[in-house]
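Annex B, item 7. Sequence and structure tokens for protein A, then protein B.
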Amino acid sequence: MNARRISILILSLVLIAAVFVGAMNVLRVEAKPVVRPQLANVRDYSPAAQGRSYAVDGGALFAGVPGYWTQVQTPADVIVSAVAVDALNPDLVYIGAANEMAIYRSTNAGDSWGRIPLTSEAIGGVTDIALDSVQRLVYVGTDTAGVFRLRDVGSSMIVGGQLLLEEPVIEVAADSTGKGMAFARTQWNLYRAENFGMTWTTVTDLKSVPTALAIANTEPAKVYVGTMDRGLLVSEDGQTWMTANEGLGLVPGSRLQVNDLAVDPQQPEVVYIATSYLYGTSEVHEAPAGVAMSTDSAEAFHPIAGQMDVAVADLMPVPGMTGAVYALTNQSRTPLALGNAPVATEVAVAPASESGLSFGAILAWIVAGLAAAALAFAVATDLRSRRPEPGTTLAPSIARNDNR
């Protein structure tokens, strides 16, 4: 009898364990990240010098390559607004929050995140992030508190140096060649970092309003600034500026506006530019001029997309693929393939190992089924052994005394 009860107990424990393992596997499968062939609502983009590129899509973080984007889990309740991946370490990723003054750092490509608060004296969010991989500096633009400078010391981040501004920061950029250049752009001004970001100065000799910003990690590093009516300016020190409009169609008397700039991180001599012409004085009209590319650090441009119906707002180069760039327009944040950029036409399918029940879940359910059958058999056998034989009577537990 005792042996039978022990066997029933063991089978019950096996059954419970198998069901638990199976349930955990099912939950894990259901929590698989979203995989999509096309991004739909891009708000920031960080092309990778090596490894996967990252994009902020609708407040969520995605990583991948054209045609296959996988959602990266980020801390709960964080609306992602900006992303930057380290040029020397593709596992080092930073994201900014739109709903708090904080950034988050991951040293394992997004598997886990550490929170780095920026300030408790302002309410707002992060607008852009730039990395100086050599100096291990992080520049964070915000909408209400200017630019923060942080140093990555490995085990933690140290906030030191701030450019306090009254207008939102639109872009920040930094080189990763060791030169230590960094810039921040607002709607009306451009600021240059001094002493590796400990202090800042206003750039006053552009002779136009800055409209776009990018830095190429060439030798030497080059700073590109788009303007409202002078086209493209380029500098190697951030102080002396030269126009670089060869092939862009800028003629005397015309006003060429640069809508956006982008540099291929794997081919830093490849530069993409989106431009428009401005007409009128009291009432200005914009006529999109298209997107052009240079393969010689802006010495000369040639078009890869002609005149468009709407102006391009942002450019997303495909790292290492010359002439491949996606455009975000003033009317849509869904990437539009230009040049020889791949066009997403098929639905992305997760690898077989990431879809359906895993082998562990299937095995757990099989074990659970066998244990359940064995348990039912053992219980039935135990009940049958307790049933009295026909024609027998159980003796009373207490005998009556009829002589009382």
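Protein B:
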Amino acid sequence: MQHSSQLSAPRTKVAYTIEFYPEEGKYHYTGHRNCKVVQMPEETKTNGTTCPVCQRKLTVGVMHRVQQLAARGISNFQFPISNDEFGVRWIKDEDGKRPPFVKLVPLLEIIAEALSSTTASGKVREVFENLVEKFGSEMAVLLQTDTAEIAKLAGPRVAEGVGKVRSGDIVIAPGFDGEYGKVKIWNTEIQNSKLKSQNSTEEKVSEQMGLF
């Protein structure tokens, strides 16, 4: 039985939540890892769930199921987006029934990519600790610190990375069929991959023409 003090005590309310990108999940999109086949929900709707390479059934991703539920009217949420004074991109429930949320990338990962290093690097750890000590916490750095102040301590590249994460200006390769998705702040890796592929194609064409 509850005491009167418990009944009258005000309920705590969640002000907001901080989330990772769901695209990082291993089964976000439909596909076949071994066949290097990955499909967005729209493509699965058009092409079906048969692998075009091996003709077996693709591993269906969660986003395909979400699309199916949305088509049946089970999921019909509206999420207005607004940026605050620090450029943080907040996603809100139009009806106000759910607290707003923001999608972030861990500060260590931002610093590591900015410095072209890894999260285990001593230099990356040093920059991380300096920022947290100066501004109070990782969340304070990611959400409530002017990027100009971050640049003074960690350099313009780290500050730019924090700004890009706040605004959602990042590159995402969604996960599929047991393969984790990748979140990149700069698309250098994707550009290099495309350039490598282009060079390989040009070399093959040149070989066929007898230029090598």
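Comment on protein B: Residues 17-183 form one domain.
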